[in-house]
Amino acid sequence: MTALEVENVGFRYGARTALSAVSFRLEEGQFCALLGPNGAGKSTLFSILARLNDIQAGRVTIADCDLAAQPLKALAQVGIVFQQPTLDLDMTVQRNMMYFAALHGLHGARARRKIEQALSLLGMAERSTEKVRTLNGGHRRRMEIARALIHEPKLLLLDEPTVGLDAETRRAITDHVHNLAASGLSVLWATHLVDEVDDGDRVIVLHEGHVRADATAADLAGNRSLVDAYLELTGAAETSL
Amino acid sequence: MTRYLVAFQAIVARELLRFTSQRGRFLSALVRPLVWLLIFAAGFRAALGISIIPPYLTYITYEVYILPGLCAMILLFNGMQSSLSLVYDREMGSMRLLLTAPLPRWWLLLSKLCAGVFVGVLQVYAFLLLAALFGVDLPPAGYLLILPALIIAGFMLGALGLLISSLVQQLENFATVMNFVIFPVFFLSSALYPLWRMRESSEFLYYVCAVNPFTYAVELIRFSAYSAFSSMSLLIVVITGILFFGFSVIAYTPARAGQRGRGPSQT
């Protein structure tokens, strides 16, 4: 099964083109890094995949469901972690998770079981009774990832999930998400941080709304470093390493 | 259908939990109308004589006259408060969580609206209890009879808030909107003075009050409280409420973001 298929997707904000004929396909259990500098169109693409913005041109299929024709069925297959935290700080982890579960139609013992599973997967089970405000940035992020897994999606979208976190926490979170992909979940990870990409990862380089490259990190780098290859493709001066 | 109800229940419960944790909001929701009732009304009692007008069968005090208008004021402020929290949610990102749920957007917005109405009606009853303690009350049956009117008026005013939240792009602009919406809507209505009084002063302002849907929300509550029924008020409030809600759903559709030239983070 194809977890995600993006075909010739274009998007404009008024006169400004944000995405132009973007196409790629993501298979089951694949980890794919969507690499691009700030303003490349990553967040716009994520907004389309999350159906916060409608598709203006092209087609998106999630787990064999056309996003435009069957948006609710398609969204039910997606877990999303936004760049900006979407947590209620004054509620406990459990309450935040229960709220999200309910938005996906899960309640009662079934919801609690799935929440426990998702939290355990991210090593957060013992924090379920704590208020989110008391958690550090890394734990909050892990909680958001766990939350995105409650309804057992086929596709996990993460939009620059490690922004603002220290190197050690970033590494721990990327490792967690790689493990999720290894267990069969398809992952699209948007980032502008090249060091979050492993050699074996598939990388799509997005720049100025266009796909500039689509290959494994090792193939993309060739005999250079991935950073050099990326800089060459984007000419990005603002790259964070 | 169960999925719909589960989400509805969660959205209402979350809003209620939020409200109970914001003591300041609850307090100001009660103090504001009480100030009007106990201070403003005391000062204006002598200046504003009220003749016998439907639904009243006898002369009434000014405090009794403005009581339904203050109930509507609570619903109006609550609608704006819900609207403010929607704009805040959008800026803070939590609105995205709601809008990416696999449920129709109109249902999610309706759930949010109903949650706000529920909180608003609770505030009205808390205020009516306090007003009764200060000796300003409704006929006993009125407390029950106003419930449907409060729900319908709350829906209309909440939908107005929803519509405003979809149009206001930044939190900073909200104070302006509050000033330009709440005050004209409240003062240009029958909440504080009967329309015939307004007509004596200005024919033009009278017509403005007569086309203000808030006037009909006030009258709907007033008539219900006195076991009377104003079909025109009901009709106008229901139609306006449906229109406001319909426009809000359109304004919250995904396609609008691109058309308005917004960036992805502001959706």
Characterise this structure.
The complex is a heterodimer of chains A (241) and B (267). A 6-stranded mixed β-sheet of chain A has the order 6-7-8-3-9-10, sandwiched between helices. A 4-stranded antiparallel β-sheet of chain A has the order 2-1-4-5. Chain A has 8 helices and 10 strands. Chain A has helices at residues 42-49, 71-75, 93-103, 108-121, 137-149, 167-182, 217-221, 226-234, and strands at 2-13, 16-27, 31-35, 57-62, 65-66, 78-81, 155-159, 186-191, 202-207, 210-216. Chain A starts with a strand and ends in a 7-residue tail after the last helix. Chain A folds into 2 domains: 1-77 and 154-241, P-loop containing nucleotide triphosphate hydrolases (Rossmann fold); 88-152, no CATH class. Chain B has one domain (2-254). The chains are: A alpha/beta (241), B mainly alpha (267). Chains A and B meet through strand 1, helix 1, helix 2 and helix 3 of A and helix 1, helix 4 and helix 12 of B.
